[in-house]
Write a structure and sequence with these properties.
The chain has 202 residues and is mainly alpha-helical. It has helices at residues 3-6, 11-18, 28-37, 53-59, 66-80, 94-107, 113-122, 133-181, 186-200, and strands at 26-27, 42-43, 50-51, 86-87. A two-stranded antiparallel ribbon has the order 1-4. A two-stranded antiparallel ribbon has the order 2-3.
Amino acid sequence: MIYSDIENMTNAEAVAYYRPLTNSPIPCGDLENLLDWNGLAKRNAVTGAWEGILIDFMSNPPAGAGALGDGLGELFSHLNKPRSMGVDSHLQPWATKMNALLAGLAAAGVVTAQLISDVVALAGGYAHPELDEAAVQAIRDQHAADEAEAAADAALQAEIIANATKWDALLNAHINPLKDSGDYSDAAWIAALNAMASNWSN
């Protein structure tokens, strides 16, 4: 993650957006097997229809859990599509939807924390597992430090160029004419160098 990823977000918004992202999609076949092995949902061997705890919950969600029922409906509708290869939990908004669904089912006592870990593992884990607001702020602070360093470097380069230009101008005004005059006396050189030094600070 780099500064441009979070530039137009608050720290809280950045955490909410990036923290649920997984490293890759959740393979549909592996997810189906996981749900089956945990006794949560499976396809009927004869009819092909889904059945199990999650299906019962989706069909008749407890009071206040309608959103979870809708989330399960969306998930199983996706799994039913013949061309569905994975659940895109590595992208938004699907990462947040899957995260909210799993957290809600855990809070309702339908799935375990281990099941959630197993689902996330199918997607290669979280892309930013340690992300919090402090980590986002650290990215902003580093960007600000890099910008300040770049500005200081630019100012130094500008000063070097300006001094080089001034040196050339004073050299042309005081030293080169002396060489052309043929007067190589100490007094002439001292006067030219003093004039050059005097004009340097002007």
